[in-house]
């Protein structure tokens, strides 16, 4: 078979698999995004999916804006790799978010300030947010033993934010870290950064929760929501900036796949419950390019698409949590305190904005595949035929069968 006769993967992708950003914006978020990097952009089927801004409305370069990529030698700047990602996002009308890494790779304040100036000036006006300082703290809240902390002390963080504010007054300035998604010493340290900068009148706009989670060990909905609210209370927005939820061992069991879906839904629901949570970025969208296996041997399958670029059970769970169904988009959900709207009748019940002690609402039983769920009609190939809260027909068109993908989504295949 000639390769030229093969359809790109995205050409075979049903509409239900190209809606994450559309659904997220309907819920009031600014974006649903994905990380990527230069090597992946030579993979045509991968690019076909990544370039759909209805699926991913925001792009984060994994490494091409970090210090070693933009200033490989002191005083010598190169932006070639970063410009490729920037051009890709611009072409596809996708928001850009830069994670610049820790500004902790040199030894002098002048070097740090010059690096911030050069990189932010080059990309001025092209990105929504910068992670000005990244991963500054140990798990117990002590400062990491970086060169800048050794030489300058804790003042390097205010210096970095003050310098960043000089060079792009439109960009949001973030502190970004992992393991700050739940209350604890590290989260408290990050919260104190916000309080300190605000008290000094230094610009800080947001805090990014990296959210590199493990299936079964992810903070529950109540804990994540309370943590987000603690930061918002101090006058900043919040976002999940590098979300993935890895299995500790492979292949995952059916129970582990269900738990992964639940864990993803808890994080999505936490962001939905907090008005100033502006979006979620997954740390690349496919297991094919995940950082996890090389860092945690034996672990993996952490993302929403598998290695063959096919949506997984967790993907369908996220779509359902955002109010989506096959080929449909939910009406915009009203945040807590606003007048209620009636959701579209074909969609799952809207995510509640008030929390109970449980980690997620009780599930509505899913009609058994092949039975009539109460609605009249036949579901087309690739259409939704069941799932939590689903009220449509469960009868699939001739030649297809209703297959349970997860508790939230069944599909005619």
TrEMBL record:
GO terms for cellular component: extracellular region. It is found in: Secreted. Pfam families: CBM_1 (PF00734), Glyco_hydro_10 (PF00331). Pathway: Glycan degradation; xylan degradation. Keywords: Carbohydrate metabolism, Glycosidase, Hydrolase, Polysaccharide degradation, Secreted, Signal, Xylan degradation. It comes from the Eukaryota. Belongs to the glycosyl hydrolase 10 (cellulase F) family. This is Beta-xylanase.
């Amino acid at each position: 078979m000639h390769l030229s006769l093969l359809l790109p993967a995205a050409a075979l992708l049903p509409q239900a698999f190209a809606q994450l950003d559309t659904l997220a914006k309907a819920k009031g978020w600014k974006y649903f995004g994905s990380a990527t990097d230069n090597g992946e952009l030579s993979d045509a089927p991968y690019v076909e999916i990544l370039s759909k801004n209805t699926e991913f409305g925001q792009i984060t370069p994994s490494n091409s804006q970090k210090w070693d990529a933009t200033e490989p030698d002191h005083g010598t700047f190169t932006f070639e790799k970063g410009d490729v990602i920037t051009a890709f996002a611009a072409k596809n009308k996708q928001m850009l978010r830069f994670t610049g890494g820790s500004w902790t790779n040199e030894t002098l304040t002048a070097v740090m300030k010059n690096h911030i100036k050069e990189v932010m000036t080059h990309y001025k006006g092209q990105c929504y947010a910068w992670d000005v300082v990244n991963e500054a703290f140990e798990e117990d809240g002590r400062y990491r033993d970086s060169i800048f902390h050794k030489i300058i002390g804790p003042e390097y963080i205010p210096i970095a934010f003050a310098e960043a504010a000089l060079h792009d007054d439109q960009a949001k300035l973030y502190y970004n870290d992992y393991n700050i998604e739940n209350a604890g010493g590290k989260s408290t340290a990050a919260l104190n950064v916000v309080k300190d900068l605000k008290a000094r009148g230094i610009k800080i706009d947001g805090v990014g929760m990296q959210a590199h989670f493990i299936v079964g060990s992810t903070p529950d909905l109540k804990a994540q929501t309370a943590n987000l609210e603690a930061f918002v209370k101090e006058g900043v927005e919040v976002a999940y900036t590098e979300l993935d939820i890895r299995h500790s061992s492979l292949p995952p069991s059916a129970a582990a796949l269900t738990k992964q879906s639940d864990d993803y839904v808890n994080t999505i629901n936490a962001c939905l419950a907090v008005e100033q949570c502006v979006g979620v970025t997954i740390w690349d969208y496919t297991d094919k390019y995940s950082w996890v296996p090389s860092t945690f041997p034996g672990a993996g399958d952490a993302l929403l698409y598998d290695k063959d670029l096919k949506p997984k059970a967790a993907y369908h769970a996220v779509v359902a949590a955002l109010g989506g169904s096959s080929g449909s988009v939910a009406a915009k959900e009203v945040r807590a305190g606003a007048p209620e709207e009636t959701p579209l009748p074909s969609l799952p019940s809207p995510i509640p904005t008030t929390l109970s002690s449980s980690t997620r609402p009780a599930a509505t039983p899913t009609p058994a595949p092949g039975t009539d769920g109460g609605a009249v009609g036949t579901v087309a190939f690739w259409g939704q035929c069941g799932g939590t809260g689903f009220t449509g027909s469960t009868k699939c068109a001739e030649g297809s069968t209703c297959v349970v993908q997860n508790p939230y989504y069944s599909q005619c295949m």
